[in-house]
Amino acid sequence: MQFRQKALSKLQSPDELDMPVRFARPQGRLVLAVTVVVMAAASFWALTGTVSSKLSAPGILTHAAGSYVLQSPVAGQVTTVLAEQGRLLSAGTPLLNVRTEQGDRPVRAVTGGRLTTLLAKVGSVVATGADVATVERVESPDEPLVAVLYVPGADSATIAVGAPVDLSVQSVPHSEFGTLRGRVEAVGHAPQTPAQIAGFLGDSALAGQFSRQDSPVAVLVRLERSSRTKSGYRWSSAGGPPYALDSTTPVTGAVHLAAQRPADWLLP
Which of 141, 195, 198, 246 has its CA 20 to 30 A from that of 214? Predict the structure, then answer.
């Protein structure tokens, strides 16, 4: 009964009404201030800052006009090989002779270029339409190399002409000599079929490899030249490798994409 009277008395006349109320401790105000500053800085960066990214794609070093596969127009046995690999040919140059029922018939280069692969050997039997050689379409041995990358069709629209490209060359140790420098020269307008890729590269095996990309689009990369390196091209290292680069060397290209504002990712 005494406890009940004390409780009622306390409700009727609450004490400490004149005591100040403490809403937050100094440490809490500091945390709040820091949070506001961080949020303001993040918002400012999202509106004014930029984020860069790269797109990686496989490719190959070649020449701008590509290569073609020379096929035999006749059937028979190869009796003579008249050209050597690496030789620069003019249009109509005989590469080999094939013995047919009508006598020996020459197989000639269709257009000028450098003989990169000679498949036919003396004594081998070839059928009409059989592949006998691969010829690279070049006019001089000093014609500069280019890189051709094959990127998925869905990503090709993000690549801008003139964008920097870092190329890791398979025959060059990356840790020692770095990457080869280049810039996007052209971006294909439509995906390429395996037959189109093979027709340009003169190699059906490479065409099958690059066709693994989803609707591959060809991206032409012009290599940056340099008179200070042995290869004749600019590298991320000071001098690059102490030897020349060969055509048909596989590469992996990292294409620099246009910088974006973080706020653009949130906006429709």
Answer: 246
The SS3 of residue 146 is strand
Residue with structure tokens 């690496």?
86
DSSP character at residue 23: -
> Is the overall model pTM greater than 0.90, yes or no?
no
What is the C-alpha separation between 149 and 251, in angstroms, rounded?
Answer: 8
Task: List the Cα angle 180/203/123 in 5-degree steps.
Answer: 125
Helix or strand or coil: residue 194? helix
* Pairing label, strands 54-62, 76-81: unpaired
State the Cα–Cα distance between residues 4 and 100, nearest whole angstrom.
126
Residue type, 192: Q
The pLDDT tens digits of the residues spanning 62-88 come to 999 999 999 999 999 999 999 999 899
Can you give 101-138 as a three-state secondary structure string? CCEEEEEECCCCEEEEEECCCCCCEECCCCEEEEEECC
Chain CA centroid to CA 98, Å = 42
Torsion angles phi and psi, residue 104, rounded to 5: -70, 130
Q: Which of 268, 152, 122, 265 is nearest to 219 (CA)?
A: 152
Contact 110, 70 (CB under 8 A): yes
**232 contacts 241 by C-beta, under 8 angstroms:** no
Q: With beta carbons less than 8 A apart as the criterion, state whether 222 and 62 touch.
A: no
Q: Could you give phi then psi for residue 200, rounded to 5 degrees?
A: -85, -45
What sections of the chain are H helices per DSSP?
A: 2-12, 26-48, 153-156, 174-177, 194-201, 204-210, 262-266
Total Cβ atoms within 10 A of residue 266 = 8
